[in-house]
Amino acid sequence: MSATDQPDLARDDVADAAAVTAAPPEVRERHREVSEQVEDARWRYYVLDTPTLSDADFDTRLRELEALEDDYPELRTPDSPTQKVGGAVSTEFTAVDHLQRMESLDNAFSYDELEGWYARLAREGLETPDLLCELKVDGLAINLLYERGRLVRGLTRGDGRTGEDVTPNVKTIDSVPHRLTGTDEFPVPELLEVRGEVFLPVEAFERLNVTMTEAGRPAFANPRNAAAGSLRQKDPRVTASRDLGMVCHGIGERRGFEPKAQSHAYEALATWGLPTSDQVRVVGTLTEVEAYIENAGEHRHSIVPYEIDGVVVKVDDVSLQRRMGSTSRAPRWAIAFKYPPEEVNARLLAIEVQVGRTGRVSPFGRMEPTRVAGSTVEKATLHNAHEVRRKDVRPGDTVILRKAGDVIPEIVGPVLALRPEGLAEWVMPTECPACGTTLAQQKEGDRDLRCLNHEACPAQVRERVFHVAGRGAFDIEGLGYEAASALLASGAITNEGDVFDLDEARLLTTPLFTRAPKKGEEGTHVSPDGSRALTANGQKLLANLDKATGAALWRVLVALSIRHVGPTAARALAQEFGSWQAIAAATEEELAATEGVGPTIAAAVVEWREVPWHQEIVAKWSGHLPLADERDESVPRTLEGLTIVATGSLQGYTRDSVKEAIITRGGKAAGSVSKKTDYVVVGENAGSKAEKAEQLGVPVLDEEQFTRLLEQGPAGLS
Ligand SMILES: NC(=O)c1ccc[n+]([C@@H]2O[C@H](COP(=O)([O-])OP(=O)(O)OC[C@H]3O[C@@H](n4cnc5c(N)ncnc54)[C@H](O)[C@@H]3O)[C@@H](O)[C@H]2O)c1
Ligand SMILES: [Zn+2]
């Protein structure tokens, strides 16, 4: 809803210009250079749909121009990129003028900048105005023209004055009504420009890319590019096949409709059948705005099925919007708060390989340290050689690096337009980088290559020692990656079998755990020759190791690094057999018959236990740990034959202790709800499992009922 359409190149600035010094030649040159880069980037982004700059790099350049122009206002000419709505009209489409200009938005990259914008509203006399918060949809802007309720035209934003006519394409979008339906309260207006964003939902984007790659065509880098590429098609049938969606975020020219507030306009649009967002909120304070931003940021990937890149905050009242007016490119009554980018360009310096705990050798990209989604990334996985080939990434490429939420950083693909000529393809090494063994498949048909020197390959040994201490295994604090490496390097241990043999004397040989003794210090923590003393961390590690010797059998099984044996399979085995001795003596059939185990795991266990150096590890551990669960006869077997799923957080239990409680009473702790589930225990913030239980008619218990079930069995519930 732009109000004034006059570009009002700030008059103050022009007046000031006379007073300040003229821009020196090198500043002019820089301004010209960056302006060209920005114009070029816009062309590639808006017209070609294949950007070569990341959004963050683009924003940085635009900000640089703004800063130069702040210092030297004479550079802020009407055709500077900072003064224009970025975009152009491709010759592929008919150019048509918008009835009312389409604007861009000013950005805030921090709360400081947001507060600056708010302070400006106050200076203009807007004391605590109602603020409308909505999601910033990462798609492309569209302008729909309705005449007497009929959709007559759809235009892209173009340069803000003139857009590209994509009417037949827009008409293929399901959520775009061809006709509006009025009510008594909201009769259909004579004429209306509706502004919104066309997007491709993330799932549709992923499906589309699968189809594209299967057809041997380049994949789209992200949903925005895919949406733009899909809408701006010569053949509308292609657009129709792409599952595009649309959401409204404003209105332009109108006749026979004058809303008092942005939120009222949305109400009318929704009534007429136009797609509006259910995420719009009107709030009264900046604190509430920030809470909205926090919340949407935290749930960025689940709040809506499409990508968002920020939050847009707008003054809700239309007369106040008019009062604030617009600059040459954006309204002053709105601001886009942008989240840290999740996709940036990065220089791929090299592709290296790493050796995992089971010998799997996987390539990863080493990049110039790059900021993405709030952290600095230098490494990103490439999974396997096949993946490197499929994505065609090469050392020396500029790549698109993506880090979304908690997901590990990923290389999306190369920016082909920036590839230096003659860049060689990467070749998977044939030898283990850690021990030089020739890489091979473990089994025929494996996609992965492995170093089969499992016993002695230093990389695998280190990963296994680290794993022994992991949360799913013995959970030993103080034995992290650094400690594992240091203990192996000093010879204090040779592999995971030695972990429980660690004592003061051995730790004192490892520099990481020693310090210079204090004056006159002697006693147990000091080496016999008095030269080194054990650090506090070293002492803690010994205490934690001691504690770990009381660990349950399933943790021991996980720690052994048997293929396919994770916490779930380990619990099942421990429950059924009770001791390592029993597992070692069981036949493959007996193992496979165990509920939750099956033939693959059984075969892996049998294969593992036959290897002599594996047996040595077990023998060494057995000197320190029982390798068996004490069956506590005092615990009644109240849950024999029952399958129970616990979901959400319970007051008196951790995730592990719930399972423990169920299993020790003879029950089965399952992870997902099915018809076979007897009870679902629901704690706070329980998700879809609780719903599933309702659907299937499985009895749902709260924590108190669960406690009674534990004590007395099903009889306790009646
Ligand atoms: N990578 C590149 O080379 C390149 C080039 C040009 C632009 N860009 C990207 O585009 C941005 C600039 O584009 P811009 O001028 O469209 O500005 P913008 O994307 O920062 O904001 C303006 C646009 O946001 C859209 N929008 C989404 N949700 C909205 C909502 N709820 N309310 C109002 N508008 C909403 C509208 O289409 C509006 O035109 C850059 O910051 C960059 O991210 C990238
Ligand atoms: Zn190796």
UniProtKB/TrEMBL annotation:
Binding site for NAD(+): D55, A56, D57, F58, D59, S104, L105, E134, R157, E197, K314, K338
Pfam families referenced in this protein's UniProt entry, alphabetically: BRCT, DNA_ligase_aden, DNA_ligase_ZBD, HHH_2, OB_DNA_ligase
Start-end of Low complexity biased regions: 16-25
SMART domains noted in UniProt: BRCT, LIGANc
Binding site for Zn(2+): C432, C435, C451, C457
NCBIfam families registered for this protein in UniProt: dnlj (TIGR00575), PRK07956.1 (NF005932)
Function: DNA ligase that catalyzes the formation of phosphodiester linkages between 5'-phosphoryl and 3'-hydroxyl groups in double-stranded DNA using NAD as a coenzyme and as the energy source for the reaction. It is essential for DNA replication and repair of damaged DNA.
Similarity comment text for this entry: Belongs to the NAD-dependent DNA ligase family. LigA subfamily.
Full protein name: DNA ligase
Organism: Nocardioides renjunii
Recorded name of the encoding gene: ligA
